[in-house]
Design brief:
Oligomer: heterodimer
Largest sheet of chain A: 5 strands, parallel
Structural class of chain A: alpha/beta
Strand content of chain A: 15-25%
Distance between the termini of chain B: 58 Å
Shape of chain B: globular
Distance between the termini of chain A: 51 Å
Number of strands of chain B: 19
Helix content of chain A: 25-40%
Mean pLDDT of chain B: 76
Low-confidence stretches of chain B: 80-159, 206-219
Radius of gyration of chain A: 24 Å
Structural class of chain B: alpha+beta
Mean pLDDT of chain A: 93
Helix content of chain B: 25-40%
Largest interface: A-B, 58 and 53 residues
Chain lengths: 482, 465
């Protein structure tokens, strides 16, 4: 590559897809412009998603734990919640992280233009910044504009009482009653926060279970806790209309079987999904193509149908996860740098930060069944875990999805406190092609929750010291010799 | 903006050295305009652009070794473009129904011979390779670029069972162009490790070669170290070109693997020469040159048809003789860079004037280095003529995996005692080297005699050929 002609890269969107792309490209010696309307890099993830929600979930956990402690003879009394201070702390967390990214951008000599970008053609962007129009030419561009909350049909109501996830995270008040439309991860996480803070929460889910797509045996323990914490979970139910009636929102519910019902709640959170954000990007001036659901079509290198334009993150397809966007950013930048990169992960971890947490990676049991892949399942219930017992959190479950024949780990699913941290071992096992015996023979610290991963492998071989199973490995002699 | 990547150069050729860069940033480039001169194992070639536009970046420089699929240029306002930039790693992008989508027009004789022999032979020399080569046609880029392999919807994690290999091993496979789905893992449970990928990479291009010939040395022979020549006198070291290294390797492999027998015989070419003189103007009118070699091409093709074992390859792995029902004859050409062997396809189907035109063209282009790789491979037999340089008999080396080669020497007027008197006759020496593993000396003698008689009595071709 000729050094006197650095590649001019424009990155649109500074979320967890955009800013890592800009930073890595700068390390590769490219001439990088990062375009985003916010003051600092961070995007939805830092400003309005992952980070503020986790700050609030941590607060919620503390409130609940203080209650659980009563069972162990420790009484704190009713917590006093200063909402302004809680909100300020959350904002400080966000401010500190995004400010750090701003500094990193400057250190890497990434030019950050605060504005909205629009493609003029496949080599030029027009950026609106404070009323002026800046033209940015590029050799390659990465679209990392993420997604926006979806509010279809009856759920689109222009009222401060009807919130999307962004508004819910702003934490204006703790409503007496909160109805959450959508039993997916956003709905459940916000249910966890608001119910801990004192709201009477009702969850309405259109399908027959919470967290559609996740394995049921993992969802069940979580659903039990959620049901205990909230007022009501209405499955198989649709919201057919919503109306701001002054002192509340009147919501009409239509169950799959049975009669329509109307309730009035103080606030509503609509969390039915997110849509790729491709609006006003001027993509029609380029060869970029969208699929039927509005995602930008990309190949393995994350290159779009327009040779100079790449797309990463939520805008380029499911799963809409920050860490997937970051990995795609690496692939796109390496491809632009001329390296033979490809987006081909074996496992993308998904974590639901409810309490307990639910996490999985690689192949799910459901996925194996749908695709006709022959697998063996090994489960270790946390009732048999010493560490879970000391925490008073024995509702958890760890399970391995193993390829029949090779016994390699194709997927791992965990429900339980700290599942989001524990899943990392599962990702490594799947990506490295570890076999059940590898997991079993690797020494895990005792007493920890991570032992449950090793113990599930022990269960597979019928050798778990703490859990007697009659699973596949009924004979202990099948196991490996250490 | 568009990229131009190094297109497929032909089967088995993965990389090349850059000899010259013919464009610079700011240049306007048109479709088919040469942008690089490169040297592959077999030839020096120009790389023509498949896109038009203004060069905004030149990503390679003289001396670089570049790989198929590597980005060479970035262009602005690219008009006509190509899918190859998109999927260097997608073998399914071109189906096997389009053998040789490459730039070089090549006949596919394997398809012409529906009989068993051809079917057997074809896969060896003629395996249609999914090539994604420089498309000549223009077209809307936006229509051309989207490819079948785009599946943005399915995250690999949940769509199927991933390769049984760690991320770094998968990346290695991607980098060296190995399809990891086809690699057999040697680890526990069939896990694929780095060595497995490297082995797959080594085995793939060499599968057809019985003996590994990865160095310029003969396989299996330990070469003693060289003395310190500088102790005896001044020396210079000249690095071998890639071309020379390839010739060296192939010659060493042939010499080591094939037990050569060379038969010499002088043939009377008086009549042939008379015919040549009589008709050479016709060839010249058509743009060719009626040389002895051209006439010999036709005779040899007929001889090969009558002696199929000379138009064959030996597969030691399966203990089979592969008889080829196509007659593609290579002709050794002396060039500045060294020996080059362009191949004339379907010699049996062409008349001598046509052959003269084609050989003139190939020889000319061999000398100026503009032959394509496809024009230099797939031969079934080779002719080499040193007569023009005053050589009589010699011992040519077989162009592996062929099984025979015919050397032609300088013809001379010789007094021959015939019908009770001395007559001046034009005599030409022929040297036939053949692979003794499958062709015995007597077979060689019969073959050479057939040729000698066909030369002496040209009508014999029509009678028996």
């Amino acid at each position: 590559m000729t050094s006197e002609q650095p590649i001019r890269l424009a990155v649109i969107g500074a979320g967890p897809g955009g800013y890592p792309a800009a930073f890595l490209a700068a390390e590769y010696g490219m001439d990088v412009t990062l375009i985003d309307p916010e003051e600092h890099p961070g995007g939805v993830c830092l400003y309005r998603g992952c980070i503020p929600s986790k700050a609030l979930l941590h607060a919620a956990r503390l409130i609940r734990e203080s209650r659980e402690a009563e069972a162990w003879g420790i009484r704190f009394g009713q917590p006093e919640i200063d909402l302004d201070e809680l909100r300020a702390w959350k904002d400080r967390v966000v401010g500190r992280l995004v400010g750090g990214l701003g500094t990193l951008a400057r250190q890497r000599k990434v030019e950050h233009i605060r504005g909205m970008a629009r493609f003029r053609d496949a080599q030029t962007l027009h950026v609106r910044r404070d009323g002026e129009l800046v033209e940015v030419g590029f050799d390659a561009a990465i679209v990392a504009t993420g997604s926006v909350p979806l509010a279809p049909g009856a759920l689109r109501v222009d009222s401060p009482r009807v919130m999307d996830s962004t508004a819910a995270l702003e934490l204006h008040n703790v409503p007496q009653t909160l109805l959450i439309v959508g039993g997916g991860y956003i709905g459940l996480e916000m249910a966890t926060v608001y119910s801990a803070l004192g709201s009477e929460v009702t969850i309405v889910e259109m399908t027959s279970g919470l967290l559609p797509g996740a394995d049921r045996d993992l969802v069940t323990p979580l659903a039990r806790v959620v049901e205990d914490g909230v007022a009501e979970v209405l499955l198989d139910t649709r919201v057919t209309s919503m109306e701001d009636v002054g002192d509340g929102v009147r919501v009409t519910l239509q169950p799959a079987t049975g009669d329509e019902e109307t309730r009035t709640v103080e606030k509503v959170l609509v969390a039915v999904g997110r849509a790729p954000n491709t609006k006003d990007l001027g993509l029609e001036s380029t060869g970029v193509r969208l699929d039927a659901r509005g995602f930008i079509e990309v190949n393995e290198q994350r290159r779009t149908a327009e040779a100079s334009i790449y797309a990463v993150g939520d805008v380029a397809g499911h799963p809409m996860l920050a860490h997937k966007a970051t990995h795609e950013a690496r692939v796109a930048v390496e491809a632009i740098a001329g390296r033979p990169a490809a987006f081909a992960p074996a496992a993308i971890p998904a974590v639901v930060y409810t309490d307990p947490e639910l996490a999985w990676c690689g192949l799910t049991e459901l996925g194996a069944r749908e695709q006709g892949i022959e697998v063996d399942i090994a489960k270790f219930p946390w009732t048999a875990s010493g560490r879970a017992t000391t925490l008073g959190r024995t509702e958890g479950l760890t399970k391995l999805v193993l390829e029949r024949g090779t016994e390699r780990v194709l997927g791992v699913g965990i429900v339980g406190t700290n599942a989001g941290e524990l899943i990392a071992e599962g990702v490594l096992a799947v990506e490295m092609g570890a076999r059940a015996a590898d997991v079993q023979l690797a020494i895990h610290a005792h007493p920890t929750l991570s032992e449950t991963v090793m113990e599930s492998a022990e269960v597979f071989f019928g050798q778990s010291p703490h859990y007697a199973s009659r699973g596949r490995g009924a004979s202990a002699s099948r196991g490996p010799i250490a | 903006m568009a990229d131009f990547v190094l297109p497929e150069l032909g089967e088995g050729i993965e990389d090349a050295d850059v000899l010259k860069v013919l464009v610079a940033v700011g240049d306007a480039v048109e479709v088919d305009q040469p942008i690089l001169e490169i040297e592959t194992e077999k030839a020096t070639l120009d790389v023509p652009s498949s896109v038009a536009g203004t060069v905004t970046g030149v990503l390679v420089k003289v001396g670089d070794t570049i790989k198929v699929g590597q980005r060479l240029l970035t262009l602005d306002g690219a008009a006509s473009a190509s899918a190859p930039a998109e999927e260097p790693s997608a073998p399914e992008a071109a189906s096997s129904e389009e053998p040789r989508a490459g730039a070089a027009p090549v006949e596919a004789p394997a398809e012409e011979g529906p009989d068993q022999g051809a079917a057997e032979a074809a896969p060896v020399e003629r395996e249609p390779k999914p090539e994604v080569a420089a498309p000549a046609k223009g077209g809307e880029e936006r229509d051309a670029v989207p490819s079948v392999e785009q599946q943005p919807e399915a995250p690999a994690a949940s769509s199927s069972v991933p390769p049984f290999a760690s991320p770094t091993v998968r990346r290695l496979a991607r980098e060296i162009g190995v399809d990891i789905a086809r690699v057999r893992g040697s680890g526990p449970g069939g896990r694929i490790d780095e060595e497995d990928v490297k082995r797959a990479a080594r085995e793939a291009p060499r599968a057809a070669l019985a003996a590994p010939a990865s160095s310029t040395a003969a396989p299996g022979i330990e070469i003693p170290p060289l003395p310190e020549f500088a102790a005896f006198g001044p020396v210079e070291r000249e690095s071998l070109s890639r071309f020379r290294r390839t010739v060296a390797r192939n010659m060493a492999a042939s010499w080591a693997v094939v037990p050569h027998v060379t038969l010499h015989r002088t043939v009377d070419v008086t009549e042939l020469e008379a015919l040549r003189q009589r008709y050479k103007q016709r060839a010249a009118d058509a743009g060719g040159s009626l040389t002895v070699t051209v006439i010999l091409l036709k005779i040899v093709a007929a001889a090969l048809k009558a002696h199929p074992r000379f138009n064959a390859s030996l597969d030691m792995a399966s203990n089979e003789l592969i008889l080829k029902r196509y007659y593609d004859i290579g002709v050794a050409v002396d060039t500045e860079r060294g020996l080059t062997v362009p191949v004339i396809r379907g010699v049996d189907d062409k008349n001598i004037v046509e052959l003269s035109v084609e050989l003139s063209d190939l020889a000319e282009r061999a000398r100026d280095g503009s032959l394509t790789v496809d024009e230099m491979r797939g031969g079934t037999f080779t002719l080499t003529n040193l007569g023009g340089m005053g050589i009589g008999e010699f011992t040519p080396i077989i162009n592996y995996p062929e099984v025979a080669v015919l050397g032609v020497g300088r013809a001379q007027q010789v007094p021959v005692f015939e019908d009770g008197k001395w007559e001046p006759r034009l005599q030409m020496p022929l040297s036939l080297s053949h692979d003794h593993r499958i062709i015995d000396g007597a077979d060689g003698a019969r073959f050479l005699t057939w040729i000698a008689e066909a030369i002496a009595e040209p009508l014999l071709i029509a009678l028996e050929g």
